[in-house]
TrEMBL record:
Lineage: Bacteria, Pseudomonadati, Planctomycetota, Planctomycetia, Planctomycetia incertae sedis
Organism: Engelhardtia mirabilis
InterPro entries: RNA_pol_sigma-70-like (IPR039425), RNA_pol_sigma-70_dom (IPR014284), RNA_pol_sigma70_r2 (IPR007627), RNA_pol_sigma70_r4_t2 (IPR013249), RNA_pol_sigma_r2 (IPR013325), RNA_pol_sigma_r3/r4-like (IPR013324), WH-like_DNA-bd_sf (IPR036388)
One Pfam family hit: Sigma70_r2
Keyword set, alphabetical order: DNA-binding, Sigma factor, Transcription, Transcription regulation
Similarity-based family: Belongs to the sigma-70 factor family. ECF subfamily.
Residue stretches making up the RNA polymerase sigma factor 70 region 4 type domain: 139-188
One biological process term in Gene Ontology: DNA-templated transcription initiation
Ranges for region Disordered: 1-23
MF (Gene Ontology): DNA binding; sigma factor activity
Domain RNA polymerase sigma-70 region: 43-109
UniProt feature, compositional bias: Polar residues: 1-10
Stated name of the protein: RNA polymerase sigma factor YlaC
Length: 201
């Protein structure tokens, strides 16, 4: 069964205005959203585009991504009462929820492949190279990396989060993020070189 779509959540119609300019800060909007569905709807409309883009980049499949986006905002609504402002933008918390959902999906996908429950793509005909553009090639290479490097690289380079924000999302020190960025770049570069060699051979 597919997860509930975002539009089924209280106050989420997918249309309407962005946060009231009279609000002093996003923190005030978050405070109101704990008891006011319309305020949560404003948070949803403000952050949905970025969270949806992030998840779609990570998983590739649009239907799966849409389910994970819905799950992310449903979880945000359920856990909003426990959210604490730790000096980082509210989006950092949402990215953390999204990353956790992606990590669970990746574990399930690996399990399904190991158990033979997941369909595999039809092989290309002999002598026929699959058409893969540079962006898709990079995404495939990124998905081949360990999850901690996938998440770190995607949040920093694709979503534009600062090292401090990424550290907040992943629950680690900024120095750890910097080390993962460095190592992740090396792994990604090596993987892209392997893919390039496979295509040209």
């Amino acid at each position: 069964m597919r997860a509930s779509t975002p539009s089924t959540l209280p106050g989420l119609s997918g249309t309407g205005n962005l946060p009231d300019p009279g609000l002093s800060s996003e923190a005030e909007l978050v405070r109101r959203a704990r008891t006011d569905p319309d305020s949560f709807g404003q948070l949803y409309r403000l952050h949905h585009p970025a969270i949806a883009r992030y998840i779609r980049r990570r998983v590739g499949d649009r239907d799966t991504a849409d389910d994970l986006v819905a799950d992310t905002f449903a979880t945000a609504l359920a856990k909003l009462g426990r959210y604490r402002d730790r000096g980082l933008p509210f989006r950092s918390w949402l990215y953390g929820l999204a990353s956790n959902g992606i990590r669970r999906w990746l574990r399930r996908s690996v399990h399904r492949r190991h158990c033979g429950l997941e369909e595999t793509a039809e092989p290309a005909h002999a002598g026929e190279a699959p058409a893969v553009d540079a962006a898709e090639s990079a995404r495939v290479a990124l998905l081949s990396l360990p999850a901690r490097y996938q998440t770190t690289l995607a949040l920093h380079y694709l979503e534009g989060l600062s090292v401090l924000e990424v550290a907040g999302v992943m629950g680690c020190r900024p120095g750890t993020v910097k080390a993962r960025l460095s190592r992740g770049r090396e792994l990604l570069r090596a993987r892209l070189e392997v893919q390039s060699a496979e295509v040209t051979s």
